[in-house]
Amino acid sequence: MNAPLPPEVLKQHLIDPEICIRCNTCEETCPIDAITHDGNNYVVDPDICNGCMACVPPCPTGSIDNWRLVLRAEAYSVQEQFGWDELPGEKPLQQSDGAGAADGVATEAAMPAAGAPDAPAVQLPGASIPPWSAAHPYVNLYTHKTPALATVVGNYRVTDADTDSDIHHIVLEFGSVPFPVLEGQSIGILPPGTDAQGRPHHARQYSLASPRDGERAGYNNLSLTVKRVTEDHQGQPARGVCSNYLCDLAKNDTVQVIGPFGNTFLMPNHARANLMMICTGTGSAPMRAMTERCRRRIERGTNGRLMLFFGARTQRELPYFGPLMKLPRDFIDINLALSRDASQPRRYVQDLIRERAADVLDLLADPNTCIYVCGLKGMESGVLDALRDVVVQAGQDWTILHAALRREGRLHFETY
Ligand code: NAP
């Protein structure tokens, strides 16, 4: 067991700027607003952070899990951290009386923190561990300093041409460069060029849309689902740097890739495991990867049940609508929630979860069921409310089930 730290020593929480992909997940997750950012880095304010660890499991890269032992009076300031290109090295602790390294604390610095003793427990909506039978994921094999080079072998639109949703299916091939991935993982793309401050663009994160053996099995390739961003969150015209770069790529262009990322949003690997997949728009990417993994194994007869709730504005804006409809009905139970179809009232995925309460309940009762939610941030609470309603209306206790789903790595969220 680690000895308690002397009061003048701080186990300072830092973010590794070389691995961080600036996805904002940590800043959104931190319950006490200890994380902030400028145009360069995401950083942790040592005066606010209480070591509650809430930000650690959701970080897709693990860049958040860095700690240094420092004297409180000499903690790295927010301003100092904004200027970093890399983390400072480990330094022996110099006590203010000049006595040298504090006994028993200097070697702790590289270890993940166990959380500050007084930090409040933070309840995440989903699990912070993968399902027990998930395969081992590789992470951070390629970084900003050592990206892998991939070649574009396919780029085509998967929504109707006359709609506003310009969503592309992009296939990248790695040739002889090893790039092992699992369904549910993501990669980072480094767009070329510089930002307004003249600094190279940071990586943008995209979930894999293909299964572990590739979009085309055996060719060391993978696919992404990318929506061209043409407006900001307020609806004002804005050109997304990386999405436009990717959607405009031509065959044989090369792309710098980092990652892979993610070690929890992974599918179970045991026979008869059921998947409940809930997504909106391009959040369908990991669901396509998992579904395709199962489809390629239909003959084995080991798949459990697959139930999909998929939300989009209209059928014409729903990525992969054609191929999805061709899947056998006894293989996957498909439920489409269309929010802007003139011929029917607005429906969200959570409405369909309530409509299908009996079947949802049946799946929830099976300990072999894993649930995946991916897409818009706003759906997170809506989906949790819908699942809770289904359980409570059946006279069961949602709090107990929710805790079990989290503890057993069976409920996963990836929302932006
Ligand atoms: P979108 O077209 O804006 O929305 C998809 C559907 O979700 C629409 O029908 C929308 O309805 C509905 N919706 C809006 N608010 C909702 C809520 N609170 N609950 C449930 N449904 C709601 O979706 P998108 O632009 O494709 O965005 C998908 C999200 O997935 C993005 O945030 C993206 O960052 C994220 N994502 C992408 C990837 C990837 O690899 N590309 C991976 C993971 C996550 P209305 O708009 O009609 O209200």
UniProtKB/TrEMBL annotation:
The residues that hold NADP(+) are S207, K227, T282, S339, R340, G375, L376, E414
- Top-rank taxon of the source lineage equals Bacteria
State a single Gene Ontology molecular function.
oxidoreductase activity
At the top of the EC hierarchy, this enzyme's class is: oxidoreductase
* Chain ranges of the 4Fe-4S ferredoxin-type domain: 11-40, 42-69
What's the catalysed reaction?
Answer: benzoyl-CoA + NADPH + O2 + H(+) = 2,3-epoxy-2,3-dihydrobenzoyl-CoA + NADP(+) + H2O
Report the transmembrane regions from the record. Answer: none
Q: Which residues form the FAD-binding FR-type domain?
A: 145-267
Q: Which cofactor does it need?
A: FAD
Xref: Pfam families: Fer4_7 (PF12838), NAD_binding_1 (PF00175)
For this protein, the record's NCBIfam families field holds: benzo_boxA
Query: Which PANTHER family does this one have?
Result: PTHR43314
Protein name from the UniProt record: Benzoyl-CoA oxygenase component A
Please name the source species. Answer: Bordetella petrii (strain ATCC BAA-461 / DSM 12804 / CCUG 43448 / CIP 107267 / Se-1111R)
Give the encoding gene's name. Answer: petH
